[in-house]
Amino acid sequence: MRKVSVFLFSLAVLLAVQVSSAFADSKLDKAVAPLIGINYEYGGTTTSGFDCSGFTGYVFNELGIDLPRTSRDLFSWEKASKVATEDLRAGDLVFFNTSGSGVSHVGIYVGNNNFAHAASKGVTITSLDESYYAKRYLGARRILSDGSYKKLATEPEAVEVAAAVKPQ
């Protein structure tokens, strides 16, 4: 029993570190973190269950941004710009060919070479270096302007609130 408890505690710490180290206390962090562990459901767009694009759309909707529904449409969306892997930043979308016939999976880059996504095991954080995804990686798209990126993916909410309060 002790081994199971230690394993579960270690897993919880690992997940917390993976999420928080990438974009600690940002609005993006606050949108993604509570969704970790939610079950996968094909076509799912709610906290009852997500598919990959449903998860991505839900997170960005929480941030006030509407996205196309499918991974294929997101990949070719005219409002998204291509971004090189070495230039990835939190909030960029990463795409994969998991079906063998083009774009079929999307995740949200969260920093430190990790991405959040709804996989068959549920919403999780995965390394881009994990062999399954590394072999199937198709590219990335940037949907956040520099201003939106700063506001949503880098600034802790406390900083934003403090900036909004003017001294009397």
How does this structure look, described?
The chain is of the alpha+beta class and 168 residues long. It has a single domain, classed as endopeptidase domain like (from Nostoc punctiforme) (endopeptidase fold (from Nostoc punctiforme)). The chain is 40% helix and 21% strand. A six-stranded antiparallel sheet has the order 3-8-4-5-6-7. The protein has a two-stranded antiparallel ribbon with strand order 1-2. The radius of gyration is 16 Å and the shape is globular. Mean pLDDT is 85; it is low at 1-23 and 158-168.
Query: Largest sheet, if any?
Result: 6 strands, antiparallel
- Helix-strand string: HHEEHHEEEEEHEHH
Q: Using the alpha-carbon principal axes, give the shape.
A: globular
Give the strand line-up of the largest sheet: 3-8-4-5-6-7
Q: How many H/I helical runs?
A: 7
Mean pLDDT across the residues is 85
Question: How many individual β-strands?
Answer: 8
Helix content: 25-40%
Counted up, domains total: 1
Q: Mind telling me the CATH class?
A: Alpha Beta
How far apart lie the N and C ends? 57 Å
* CATH fold descriptor: endopeptidase fold (from Nostoc punctiforme)
Strand content: 15-25%
Task: Name the CATH architecture.
Answer: Alpha-Beta Complex
The structure class reads alpha+beta
Low confidence ranges: 1-23, 158-168
Radius of gyration equals: 16 Å
